[in-house]
Write a structure and sequence with these properties.
Layout (H helix, E strand, L loop, with lengths): L1 H29 L3 H12 L17 H6 L1 H10 L22 H12 L28 E4 L3 E2 L7 E8 L6 E9 L8 E7 L7 E4 L8 E6 L6 E2 L7 E6 L4 E8 L7 E2 L2 E6 L7 E3 L1 E8 L3 E2 L3 E10 L7 E9 L4 E9 L5 E7 L10 E9 L4 E10 L14 E2 L9 E9 L19 H9 L5 E2 L6 E5 L6 E8 L5 E9 L4 E5 L9 E8 L4 E7 L2
Parallel strand pairs: 9-13
Antiparallel strand pairs: 1-12, 2-11, 3-6, 3-10, 4-8, 4-9, 4-12, 5-7, 5-10, 14-23, 15-22, 16-21, 17-20, 17-23, 18-19, 18-21, 24-25, 25-28, 26-27, 26-29, 29-30
Helix pairs in contact: 2-5, 4-5
Length: 528
């Protein structure tokens, strides 16, 4: 009998322990909720596309929308399909990467697997705001619209150039260029050029790939966003926009767009006129190959090399933009220095025509004379390639139609100056992204923030706001509100904030403080 009782006690003890552990484990899992854990991930990595009017097929800003799509989100995240980030992060790192950590992926997986609870909505970060349509970088300084044009793409793709007078009466310095396709479904790409002489004839030119002597300042391709350059009151990068220049939009409408009418716009954002230390960025297709064909049912690899002339000045490589079409499989480029050291520039191991872009490095790379710039691309013209435009496969050669192929790699660079390779570009104010940056330039960081730089915790001096109701807003470098606090300042001391728990890959933040009397101050915070 004692043995039976003892055995029963052991069993009960084991069961109770199991129940306690299960309950504890369940409570940990169920604590993963949208408001505290998932919304910060989505706001930092996903909602740039997944918002109303964005390129994503559904919004991830509101809980209910995210809940409705939870299983699709889970599958896409676990498969590595979302968020889309084509470059190999083991090869090269870039600014503003759309990547999730293993911990973030695990949180999303746990959240969906355990019922996708909302949690306390009062604990959710302030949702980012986007325009449903129109420019995404805020109010432009200049918007130019192409005329309404009906695509002639019948048997071949339609290439057309629109020349538009800028009507600028004084020169400006470009801090960002954003292309807004009129009908995104039919716009294969847009190249934005300046005719700085202003001598080109305004109007429409058919069978036009772009001007022979134009200055390339912007682009649009599927999946790409605006080009925005870093800069503050002491140092700014961008492009000159001389007075009287014409803007030329080189458009590509693919077969299948016949009869559809489009009117694409381009938005320009300028630095304040008082900017003095200005560095000119150039965009150039340094590697181009239009002399290759890929036979049916074969894969083919091609390579191209450009050597920086020995008499040329050193360059500072700012970024890179590779371009292929539908049967592109992989593309990479590297720089081999005169001492045979190799700098990896970019590798895209699984090319996706729908996700192209211009990628900028965290720090510029010094490219001395004699450096070899090498590009390599592989094309898959087999039936196993789901993107192959032909069934069965047919010979595909380099050409201008979407169903042809291309090998083009654009590079963004400036003339080298001593110390360029040590510049932290994110520590410069992200110009062109928000009106706040311009206000900070004008007000010269009137708000007292300390310590600055910070490890995440920082104080805001409120000594001049005694007895006032205050609103503190923290913006990331994209101009999105990531933290908002309403406080009552009875004593005029400092106020402590902590960004360590706010999911954001930025190292630079803008702080806005305003009172119920409409007093406003701005500041800039750098996180180490």
């Amino acid at each position: 009998m004692k043995k039976i009782l003892l055995l029963s006690s052991i069993v009960l003890f084991i069961l109770s322990s199991f129940i306690v552990k299960s309950t504890s484990s369940s409570s940990v899992v169920s604590s993963t909720n949208f408001s505290q854990h998932i919304a910060p991930i989505f706001y930092a990595n996903c909602t740039g596309c997944h918002h109303t009017g964005g390129v994503g097929p559904f919004s991830l800003i509101d809980y209910q929308d995210a809940y409705n799509m939870r299983f699709s989100i889970q599958t896409s995240v676990l498969n590595g399909d979302m968020p889309p980030w084509p470059p190999d992060t083991n090869y090269t790192r870039f600014r503003h990467e759309r990547i999730l950590s293993s911990q973030e992926i695990s949180l999303i997986d746990d959240w969906v697997s355990n019922g996708a609870p909302e949690g306390d909505p009062n604990l959710a970060p302030t949702p980012p705001t986007y325009n449903a349509s129109g420019p995404q970088l805020g109010v432009p300084d200049l918007t130019l619209s192409a005329p309404h044009y009906t695509s002639n793409a019948f048997m071949d793709d339609d290439y057309v150039c629109f020349t538009i007078p800028s009507q600028l009466i004084s020169g400006k310095k470009i801090r960002a260029v954003e292309v807004e396709p009129g009908v995104p479904e039919i716009v294969h790409h847009v190249l934005v050029y300046l005719d700085t002489s202003g001598n080109s004839t305004p109007g429409v030119e058919n069978n036009c790939m772009g001007p022979l002597d134009g200055l390339l300042v912007g682009e649009f391709a599927p999946g790409s966003g605006a080009i925005a350059y870093p800069g503050d009151q002491n140092l700014a990068f961008g492009m000159d926009f001389p007075a009287g220049s014409n803007v030329i939009l080189a458009m590509h409408y693919p077969v299948g767009s016949l009869g559809v009418t489009d009117s694409t716009k381009v938005h320009f954002y300028f630095y304040p006129d008082q900017i003095s230390n200005f560095r000119q960025i150039e965009i150039s297709p340094i590697l181009v190959d239009f002399n290759f064909c890929v036979p049916p049912n074969q894969q083919k690899t091609i390579s191209n090399t450009f050597t920086v002339p020995i008499f040329a000045p050193s360059l500072s490589m700012y970024g890179v933009f590779p371009h292929m079409h539908l049967i592109g499989k992989t593309i990479s480029t590297e720089a081999v220095l005169p001492n045979n050291d190799t700098i990896p520039l970019i590798k895209i191991p699984e090319w996706d025509f729908e996700w192209q872009g211009s990628y900028s490095f965290p720090k510029m790379l010094k490219i001395p004379p004699g450096t070899k710039i090498i590009g390599t691309a592989t094309y898959d013209n087999t039936a196993g390639n789901p993107h192959n435009p032909n069934t069965p496969p047919q010979t595909i050669c380099a050409g201008f139609n979407t169903t042809d192929e291309m090998f083009v790699i654009y590079y963004l660079y400036t003339m080298y100056q001593s110390g360029d390779e040590n510049l932290d570009l994110d520590s410069l104010m992200m110009s062109g992204m928000t009106n706040i940056s311009e206000l900070i330039l004008e007000k010269n960081n009137e708000l007292s923030i300390f310590p600055n730089p910070s490890n995440g915790e920082f104080n805001i001096d409120l000594s001049t706001f005694i007895g006032k109701e205050l609103i503190i807003e923290v913006f990331d470098i994209n101009g999105k509100v990531i933290l908002s606090k309403n406080i009552s300042n009875s004593y005029g001391s400092s106020y402590l904030l902590d960004l360590a728990k706010v999911k954001n890959t930025s190292s630079l933040f803008f702080i806005k403080l305003h009172s119920n009397l409409d007093e406003i101050r701005y500041g800039k915070l750098i996180i180490n």
